[in-house]
User: What shape does this take?
Amino acid sequence: MSFIVFKNIEKAFDDNVIYRGLNLSINKGETITIIGGSGSGKSVLLKMMIGLLKPDSGEIIVDKSNVVDLSKEELVKVRSRVGMLFQGAALFDSINVGDNVAYGLKMHTDLTKDEIDEKVDRCLEMVGLPGINGIMPSDLSGGMKKRVALARAIAYDPEIILYDEPTTGLDPTNAKRINNLIIELQKLLKVTSIIVTHDMDSAFSVSDRMAMLYKGKIEAVGTTDEIRKSKEAVVNDFIQGNIGEL
Assistant: This one.
């Protein structure tokens, strides 16, 4: 049964039409990657799912609740079930790693300091960075920043993790490390993961299914093998790197 459903989504920013009746169903516990060129609206989809943007029309169902109709208070409850890895990591430069990971826990939970410290330690260990709590973000490499941001994303024990271009700006070694973490966390936490990327190596390595966004709609959706073997020209062209801006 579908856990998250985008139904007949329409969205435009002035004259720039992003979605033209987009439909997509996501199963509980799967990793689905949305591929498409720059400007195709991949990241907008994630922002809509947590209510940061609203569609012009259509429904976004998250576990039977239509996010589009929720109040601010109800949206907070939905967002508490979601962890997000932002494209630029989005760490707070003025506080250390431990406080970055703990930030949401301090703001939105009743956990004690000891409980928060224990959870921060556990999350940093899960992303392969134990013991760096006192280090400042400015002293971290790009790959380490992404991993700290991922530790922060999972600190809430989310049911859903959203990944916005998780390997962008990383060298091949760090990109592979992030891909492996996505796979490991999926197995360990049993979360539903939605990834947006144009990195095809990453998409094929981490996904259960893939969906291609093209001209405002989902052009194709299927397993990694089905997408790889797709006979649709637009899918093949994108995979081969022959599509630029979509």
Residues 211 and 221 are 4 Å apart (CA to CA).
